[in-house]
Amino acid sequence: MSPEPSSSDYIHLLVERIKAATQHCTRADGSLQFESDTMRRDLIVAAEQLLMAARSPEETLFAIAQQPAQNAALRCLIALGILDKLPLNGDSCSLDDLAEAVGAEKTLLGRILRACTSTSLLNETSELHYAHNALSRALLPPANRALVTLMYDYIGRGVFALPEFLRERKWQDPGSYADCSFMLGSHTTLPMWEFYEEDAVCGKTFDLGMQSEMVPALSSGKQGGNFPFGRELSLPNTTGESQEGDQPTIVDLGGGRGQGLQDIRKNHPELSAARFVLMDLSAHVYYLRRCLHNWDDGACKTILSNVANAMDATRSRLLVTDMVVDNEGAARGAAWEDLGMMAIGGIERTERHWRDLLDQNGFRVHKIWRDDSGGHATIEARLK
Ligand SMILES: C[S@@+](CC[C@H](N)C(=O)[O-])C[C@H]1O[C@@H](n2cnc3c(N)ncnc32)[C@H](O)[C@@H]1O
To answer: A Pfam family this protein belongs to (predicted)?
Structure first.
């Protein structure tokens, strides 16, 4: 029978587990080096269980309920710009100097910094003197600060509004993309990605935050969420050498500013010849050259509606470069090409056909860019 979680035997057991794990991972020079992630995780779990066992259930609950205040202290620390005012060499700075440097009222700042030091976000070196520590240093990369900001200012507001949002739905419905607690918490009618596009600060914070390495499962060394890109995708031929045609193309859909692709490139030099394609909301142009003529109207509907879903209503343009056959008096070349397309289930469309197809799938034709050289033209369309 295992001991009660509040008994001294249980605490003793946890202490032994922690001691054994620490001894196992201690190198000759006294540094700590974990053999595996599992080992490190075990130590963390045991330490958390120890904390829980040492506290009464009421204390644990109170600590959980106090977490919003910790988060607010962290967010204030970032917003005040304190991290940039503290000496990087570990020297301390007085409250007076910090208050002057960031333009905050001294007593107010002192209370915020007290909340930070008591949470180990900063060191208090002596009364009203502060210095960087490991946690505050980890906040120096702008991407890490942006991630914390994003979690507090945007995701956090949605999380806080969840109980009210779900209660309004009588706990029957978790909501949807276009009706979610983020909208309630942020007092907006816009869902996440529309808000992100509309609000420049949110967009910038989000993009930068997504480049942070603070997310454990994606941090450096995890090589793209654990998938062994190099091993799975570098395809040697029978002679052991890879050929040009073997090189993979990796399309990162919703890839932000390219951080995921950069990670793959960095961690897998063996994929240096691969093609990396980044696709995200910021695409101004969706270009389909010589593609739609391969497909019948039904298939084009699927393609076009997927593209339409990804497009920004005001900024994005669809460019379709294809044969645009004259409605009347079609050129011979175009008519013959059309039979070629017919043979594979496609079609060369007349201008009228293109206009109908685009209209039926949510687009308006803005302009058809033609020249005299033949039937190919570029149809520029926007969302209706
Ligand atoms: C949570 S971020 C993930 C970014 C990146 N994949 C990463 O792991 O760092 C989601 C991304 O999806 C993008 N996104 C949202 N809707 C999109 C759409 N309709 N088409 C393309 N990208 C979209 C956003 O702009 C954002 O960059």
So the answer is: Methyltransf_2
User: What number of residues does the chain have?
Assistant: 384
Distance, C-alpha 104 to centroid of its chain: 33
Number of helices and strands (H, E) in the chain?
18, 10
Domains of the chain with CATH codes = 8-64 (no CATH), 66-138 (1.10.10.10), 142-209 (no CATH), 220-226+247-282 (no CATH), 285-383 (3.40.50.150)
Distance in Å from the first CA to the final CA of the chain = 68
Write the pLDDT tens digit of every residue in 302-332.
999 999 988 888 889 999 999 999 999 888 8
Catalytic residues: 293
pTM over 0.90: no
Q: Which residues line ligand 1 (CB under 6 A)?
A: 193, 210, 254-256, 259-260, 279-281, 310
What contacts 24+ positions apart, CB below 8 Å, involve 253-256? 253/279, 254/279, 254/280, 254/281, 255/279, 255/280, 256/207, 256/210, 256/211, 256/280
| Residue range 187-226, pLDDT digits in tens | 999 999 889 989 999 999 999 999 998 876 666 555 556 7
